[in-house]
Amino acid sequence: MTENAPFKVVKTNDEWRAQLNDLEYHVLREAGTERPFTGEYTDTTTEGVYRCRACNAELFRSNEKFSSHCGWPSFFAPLAEERVRYLTDDSLPGRPRVEVRCATCDSHLGHVFEGEGYDTPTDLRYCINSVCLTLEPAES
């Protein structure tokens, strides 16, 4: 690994199962989705950094979070582009989507949608499962 190469977290499925509860494993490792309006961070307005629940990588900041009323936390941008990676998701017939994964541990986070008309700087909505995140509140 070169000095500038990003750090990667690689674990076996058994190691992930030992670390994550059933819902966390299903969403993060099997690309599942939590039910809308049930997640811990759907309506949170606490200032801080959102981290990957699986590997603790910093992914989003609270100042990039907005209320989309979609049932999941929404962000208009990641903390930095190298923190996430994108995959084409053709799992819904006739409705291609872009999957968002943690670049550090390759865990599924959610999807990103473009052109929905939200009044945000990017016109993007990163629709992220709460169960994929932990919030580190800003120091007062």
Description:
With 140 residues, the chain is mostly beta strands. It contains two helices and nine strands; from the N terminus they run ααβββββββββ. Residues 1-5 have low confidence and may be disordered.
Q: What are the segments in which pLDDT stays under 50 over at least 5 consecutive residues?
A: 1-5
Quick check: average pLDDT? 91
> Major β-sheet, in short?
6 strands, antiparallel
Outline, from the CA principal axes? globular
In percent, how helical is the residue content?
Answer: 10-25%
| Termini Cα gap | 38 Å
Quantity of strands, as a count:
9
Summarize the structure.
The chain has 140 residues and is mainly β. It contains two helices and nine strands. It has a six-stranded antiparallel beta sheet. A three-stranded antiparallel beta sheet has the order 2-1-9, with no helix packed on it.
SSE blueprint:
Elements lengths: L12 H7 L2 H9 L17 E5 L5 E4 L3 E2 L7 E2 L8 E6 L7 E6 L5 E7 L9 E5 L4 E5 L3
